[in-house]
Amino acid sequence: QVQLVESGGGLVQPGRSLRLSCAASGFTFSEHAMYWVRQAPGKGLQWVALISYDGRNIYYADSVKGRFTISRDNSQKTVYLHMNSLRGDDTAIYYCARDQFLAPDVWGQGILVTVSS
Amino acid sequence: QSALTQPPSASGSPGRSVTISCTGTSSDVGYYDYVSWYQHHPGKAPKLIIHEVSKRPSGVPDRFSGSKSGNTASLTVSGLQADDEADYYCASYAGSITVFGTGTKVTVL
């Protein structure tokens, strides 16, 4: 079945970097755009980034622009989120999701990123 | 990139209906027919229940329905069941970005 599994989260100090990965299975990965969406503690869902099916078109939320980089490897069926200059307000559960109907349709279980000294 | 506005909470008795609003602007909800709704049980992955304003993915019961008028979209949950108690989020495509709603906690009384 369609599955997305995030990895790479954990505790990181402010100002440091972290890379999240999202491994896809059960569908033709190279045909779908992919999202990263996050949820800070006690807060709602926030769109972070989108990458097109071929990686040529990339978009970011203003809050992460210039610090985060989304990328993908279609041969490995994996999408990545490189996070630099991390701040306390980046603390959140990060979800990857598949695009369908110009909306995230299938989501991973999420991975916790905690930014703290 | 302001969040779409949803009421913080809504409630209803089992078997009754509840409707959640989602208010955006003429640049997102009002412009595009790409409004989606998600059910989110804490600790689990969000689940898509409505896409393109009113379409249900396969497997989603017809108790869930969506609509839109102007800059406001709505989700109605009919025949409330205990398992419907969850957080609900709307989202709208806004031309290369996606904007989520503030979220509504639905309580089944």
Give a description of the structure.
The complex is a heterodimer of chains A (117) and B (109). Chain A is mostly beta strands and 117 residues long. Chain A is built from no helices and eleven strands. In chain A, strands 2, 4, 5, 6, 9, 10 and 11 form a seven-stranded mixed beta sheet that branches. The mean pLDDT of chain A is 97. Chain B is an all-beta fold. Chain B is built from no helices and nine strands. In chain B, the strands form two sheets. In chain B, strands 1, 3, 4, 7, 8 and 9 form a six-stranded mixed beta sheet that branches. In chain B, strands 2-6-5 form a three-stranded antiparallel beta sheet, with no helix packed on it. Chain B is globular, with a radius of gyration of 13 Å. The model of chain B has no long low-confidence stretch (mean pLDDT 96).
Specify the oligomeric state: heterodimer
Dominant shape of chain B = globular
Measured between the Cα atoms of the first and last residue of chain B, the distance is: 34 Å
Percentage of residues in DSSP E strands of chain A: over 45%
Stretches of chain B where pLDDT is under 50 for at least 5 consecutive residues are none
How would you summarize the topology of this molecule?
The complex is a heterodimer of chains A (117) and B (109).
Chain A lengths: L2 E5 L2 E3 L5 E8 L8 E6 L5 E7 L6 E3 L7 E6 L4 E6 L8 E9 L2 E5 L3 E5 L2
Parallel strand pairs in A: 2-11
Antiparallel strand pairs in A: 1-3, 3-8, 4-5, 4-9, 5-6, 7-8, 9-10, 9-11
Chain B lengths: L8 E4 L5 E6 L11 E6 L6 E4 L13 E6 L2 E6 L8 E8 L4 E3 L3 E5 L1
Parallel strand pairs in B: 1-9
Antiparallel strand pairs in B: 2-6, 3-4, 3-7, 5-6, 7-8, 7-9
